[in-house]
Design a protein that fits this description.
mainly alpha, three-stranded antiparallel beta sheet
Length: 165
């Protein structure tokens, strides 16, 4: 009976060690969320006319055009803007995946960065290019002011959008 008890105690201790390891990993979630919220990637187009910054979740936070951009044909400028946005968003998403991998990759046994690169390759038809610029520290922005009530109620007190003549 002693051998069985020793076996049960060993299994219980192994279980407790795994619980402590999981608790330690999940304690890092808050830090990971803060790091993800601060993700920012700035990319400049090859011709230098367009600069785009993307943040957490691939949200575009800034688009800047040089004076030279106004001399570019509209269709070409549009294509340059879209390509630069795609590269900035891809870079921000890759940063986020790297943060998740650093925090949970070995615990979950999943390579999120590889999955993101694969998805970007499928979406864009080629391997996603690395961002042309280094990640930029995020500067605090003004808080977004949200309307009171639910989103569906926002336009209710605004009256009709289109008027009949």
């Amino acid at each position: 009976m002693s051998a069985q008890m020793d076996e049960l105690i060993a299994q219980f201790e192994n279980f407790r060690a795994k619980v402590r390891q999981a608790e330690a990993r999940f304690a890092d979630v808050g830090d990971m969320q803060e790091r993800v919220a601060q993700v920012s990637t700035t990319v400049t187009s090859p011709d230098g006319t367009v600069t785009v910054t993307a943040g957490a979740g691939g949200t575009v936070t800034d688009v800047r055009l040089t004076a030279g951009a106004m001399r570019v044909e509209a269709g070409q400028l549009s294509a340059t803007i879209m390509n630069t946005i795609r590269r900035a968003v891809a870079g921000a998403v890759q940063q986020q995946a790297g943060i998740v991998d650093e925090t949970f990759g070995d615990t979950l046994g999943v390579d999120v960065s590889a999955q993101v690169r694969e998805a970007q390759t499928e979406a864009f038809g080629t391997a996603a290019a690395e961002p042309a610029s280094e990640p930029q520290p995020r500067t605090p922005s003004r808080p977004v002011r949200r309307p009171r009530g639910g989103d569906d109620d926002y336009f209710d007190d605004q009256g009709p959008i289109l008027r009949r003549s």
